[in-house]
């Protein structure tokens, strides 16, 4: 491999300039940090914008809330337990979470009316990994079950619960659909994190530290920012009709306090360098710098489409989201998977896998081209800003 990794460096720089001028300088995003690697070696890295509302420059080692980019780590921790024979994909969730033994499926009701439900078939571990569990997120704002999640403050500020209390709250609400019959983005991975913690007998952060973070030397990845690293933490923004506003300050916000519940679906903070090490491990077949985290064949299993009937998200999802695109995207075990690049209408490879976070962070790993790329920023996304499309196009257009 050439030193430049088979990339046209001028095109990578042109792409980075596009993000800087189109998004950061025009106020659409507060900042952006980009890393592109081939065979685990960094071939491009750039930063632009401010880390905080006071204009603090974005440092190379800035700490971001990676939100749903936590999900692949939880999936890896679970699959490591599968490799050890301590759990299996077709095990029922109730074998570890007995509170889920008598789940019900929504038929009608809610909004003050009594629920009408029917008995649910068993939810399996694979349903948690691929979001076919029947669980949901309150912020989807689609159904009466979503509304019930909001009313109960499931994973919302003011509704803090520990593992056991969250499981009890979820068990008391109906499922959106029978497990395995549809796809719906949801708290499934948070429940999976509880499964991992119960099997291991220790909190999820300890599992992450022992199985993933320490072996990979991901020293800047945690569920809250320690005091000695707060100066590197970014503010978090949300775009409103009046412009971007800070919704979580770095200096004294939620990210500086240890949470009661360690969210396996979206709780981690990290840096672009740390997440690069996680991606490099995945691309290398589960090993990095002599440390083995998971097996090569397990990663191959995780990164195939597991949606029933070979469907894609556009066909099978109850509530398609931006990562589903126009089609051609399936879902594996903890990550989305490109089935057909033509239907996604974006450059890429069949077998590429990826996910994003609610603050517009994203990553993708392409085992065909042997590349991975990460984009960090810190603003709740705006549907009209095609960050994911532009990022993919930037990286792939620079391949020689």
Overall pLDDT score: 95
CA-atom Rg in angstroms: 20 Å
**Percent in helix:** 25-40%
Largest sheet: 7 strands, antiparallel
Residue ranges: pLDDT <50 for 5 or more in a row? none
The rounded distance between the terminal residues' Cα atoms is 12 Å
Provide a count of the helices: 12
- The fraction of residues in strands falls at 15-25%
Broad shape: globular
What class would the helix/strand composition place it in? alpha+beta
Give the SSE order as H and E letters.
HEEEHEEHHHHHEEEHEEHHEEHEEEEH
- Strand neighbour order, sheet with most strands: 2-1-15-14-13-12-11
How many β-strand runs? 16
Commentary on this structure:
This protein has helices at 9-24, 71-83, 125-130, 144-151, 163-171, 188-200, 204-213, 272-283, 296-302, 313-316, 341-344, 387-397; strands at residues 31-38, 41-49, 64-65, 104-110, 113-119, 236-240, 243-248, 269-270, 287-288, 291-292, 329-331, 336-338, 353-356, 362-366, 371-376, 379-380. It is globular, with a radius of gyration of 20 Å. The protein is built from twelve helices and 16 strands. It has 400 residues and is an alpha+beta fold. The mean pLDDT is 95. Helix 2 (71-83) packs across helix 6. Helix content is 28%, strand content 18%. Strands 2-1-15-14-13-12-11 form a seven-stranded antiparallel β-sheet, sandwiched between helices. The chain has a three-stranded mixed β-sheet with strand order 7-6-16, with no helix packed on it. The termini are close together.
């Amino acid at each position: 491999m050439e030193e430049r990794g088979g990339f046209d460096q001028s095109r990578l720089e042109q792409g980075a300039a596009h993000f800087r001028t189109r998004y950061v300088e025009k106020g659409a995003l507060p900042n952006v940090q980009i890393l592109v690697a081939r065979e685990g070696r960094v071939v491009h890295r750039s930063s632009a914008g401010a880390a905080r509302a006071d204009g603090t420059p974005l440092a190379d080692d800035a700490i971001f809330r990676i939100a749903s980019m936590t999900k692949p780590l939880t999936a890896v921790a679970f699959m490591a337990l599968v490799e050890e024979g301590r759990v299996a994909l077709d095990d029922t969730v109730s074998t570890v979470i007995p509170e889920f033994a008598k789940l019900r499926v929504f038929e009608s009701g809610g909004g003050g009316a009594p629920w009408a439900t029917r008995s649910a078939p068993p939810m399996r571990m694979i349903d948690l990994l691929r979001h076919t569990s029947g669980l949901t997120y309150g912020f989807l704002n689609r159904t009466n079950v979503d509304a019930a999640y909001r009313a109960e403050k499931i994973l919302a500020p003011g509704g803090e619960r520990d593992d056991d209390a969250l499981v009890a709250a979820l068990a008391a609400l109906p499922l959106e659909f029978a497990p395995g019959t549809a796809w719906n983005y949801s708290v499934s991975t948070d429940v999976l994190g509880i499964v991992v913690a119960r099997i291991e007998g220790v909190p999820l952060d300890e599992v992450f530290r022992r199985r993933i973070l320490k072996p990979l030397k991901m020293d800047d990845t945690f569920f809250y920012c320690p005091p000695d690293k707060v100066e590197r933490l970014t503010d978090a923004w949300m775009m409103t009709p009046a412009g971007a506003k800070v919704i979580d300050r770095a200096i004294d916000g939620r990210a500086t306090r240890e949470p009661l519940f360690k969210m396996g679906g979206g709780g981690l903070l990290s840096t672009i360098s740390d997440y690069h090490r996680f991606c490099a491990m995945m691309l290398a077949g589960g090993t990095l710098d002599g440390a083995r985290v998971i097996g090569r064949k397990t990663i191959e299993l995780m990164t195939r489409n597991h949606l029933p009937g070979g469907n894609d998200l556009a066909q099978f999802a109850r509530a398609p989201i931006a990562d589903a695109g126009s089609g051609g995207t399936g879902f594996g075990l903890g990550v989305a998977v490109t089935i057909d690049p033509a239907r996604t209408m974006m450059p890429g490879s069949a077998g590429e896998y990826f996910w994003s976070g609610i603050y517009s962070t994203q990553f993708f790993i392409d085992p065909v081209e042997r590349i991975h790329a990460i984009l960090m920023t810190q603003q709740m996304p705006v549907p009209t800003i095609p960050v994911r499309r532009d990022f993919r196009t930037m990286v792939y257009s620079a391949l020689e």
